[in-house]
Amino acid sequence: MFGLGLTRLLPASLRPPVVRAVSSVAERHRAALLQHRFERFRKDGNRTFVGDRVAVIGMLTARCGIGRGARLMVEDLRARRIDVIPVDVTHRLGDPVGLTAPDSIAPSALVDYRPTDVIIHYNPPKFASALALLAPAVLRSASVVAYWSWELERAPSEWRASVGWCDEIWVPSAFVADALLATFATATVRVVPHAVDRDPVGPRDRLRRDAARQKIGIPADAFVAGTSWSMLSNFERKGAGFAIAAFQAAFPFQPGSRELLLLRCRDGDAYPVGMRIIRDAATRDPRIVVLDDHAKALGILDFYQAIDTYLSLSRSEGYGLPIAEAAQAGLPVLATGWGLAADLAKCPLVSAINYRLVPVEDPQHMYDGIAGAVWAEPDVEDAAQRLRTVAYAAEAFTPKGATSGAIAWRFGA
Question: For residue 353, what are the domain limits?
Fold first, then answer.
């Protein structure tokens, strides 16, 4: 088989389809093995979620939204006085490790804990890879719950086998639930929003704000907008280009202007084409600052301290954890209105930006194969007008204030 490591020898444009083809073959093989195991150990039909001893399986040591969601699930179940068994599979499934999870166990040790339920925080095809790590005794006794997120109105048909292995599928928003049910009508789907208040981002204060800005050499008195994303979450979908366009429409360049835009992306090597786009924009406009963990770096908490407003002008979101985190920090958030999760939409700090739906064109090819798929194109002029309004309101920030004229928001009330 063509080794995935050899794809580095291919032109960048050919890597995504080759990786998908190789992964598809591997997934079909894995699916056949799992089907045999399920037929052998799970002949008695679906199980009901018990909630006694729950194993949460996921990227507990990864710096990404999927990993954050799994960690929030652990915290939420513990707060509900449920016996939780954290199982980290980040390294086992080939994902980059950036954090520690000292209380987590390896999947091979899970059988000794006799879980009543397992919750797997991975979308297919890696859902199947995680499931394949479980011992037969776990499959024989525990309910299997998938926690999935998706960003389009229909899910990939290739997920069907994984749906068949789930007793339940939990999702963070009604948008994702509707997408799964539109594709797999008989699936058992439950909306379970991310428990974002179990590990909240603290509110901003003036001293931390100034210290964060000093780290990257930006003025304390500037108005700063910002957005943060991972290339692995899809560059085109996350809308950095729209953030740049809205910023420049809101604040045409002129000498002495005090507006800045921070673009934070820690994994630019995962999609060099996207990184070149934002670096070129920064070269043409000195008010755009790229935080890439190389020339300039800023942790996510310092990032929320440094900015005055968060831009989430994405084409689609399965949930949007950064929107929640920015609001928790007390930041005004401008977010594309399409598919905005209900608990985010009701937050007074979140403004829904107008949009129109357009066919999906994805240079990274993550959303190929879904006929008629659409996603949003946020209205840049609407975003620019709201951004100017936020900039004027930011003058209400006082040295003793916690935020720019707003209070931090708590979810789940």
Answer: 206-396
Residue 244: which CATH number?
3.40.50.2000
Torsion sign (Cα): 96, 132, 51, 169 = positive
Helix (H, G, I), strand (E, B) or coil at 282: helix
Supply the DSSP symbol for 96: P
pLDDT above 70 for 222 = yes
Which pLDDT tens digit goes with each residue over 301-359?
999 999 999 999 999 999 999 999 999 999 999 999 999 999 999 999 999 999 999 99
Considering the domain boundaries, does residue 21 fall inside one?
A: no
Regarding whether 81 and 167 lie in a shared domain, the answer is yes
* 130: its two tokens: 């995680």
Q: Is 15 a member of any domain?
A: no
**What whole-number distance in Å separates Cα of residue 390 and Cα of residue 379?**
17
Express each pLDDT in 123-169 by its tens digit. Answer: 998 999 999 899 999 988 899 999 999 999 999 999 998 999 999 99
Residues 168 and 289 occupy one common structural domain? no
Are the beta carbons of 261 and 226 closer than 8 angstroms?
yes
As a whole number, mean pLDDT of residues 39-52 equals 74
Residues 251 and 144 in one domain: no
Report DSSP state, residue 293: S
pTM of the model: 0.86
CATH number for position 120: 3.40.50.11930
Amino acid (one-letter) located at 215: K
Pairing relation of β-strands 259-265 and 374-378? unpaired
33 sits in the region (left: phi over 0; alpha: psi -120 to 50; else beta) called alpha
Domain count of the chain? 2
For the stretch 92-115, pLDDT in tens is 988 888 888 889 999 999 999 999
Residues 164, 223: one domain? no
What does the alpha-carbon distance between residue 169 and residue 147 come to, in Å, rounded to a whole number? 6
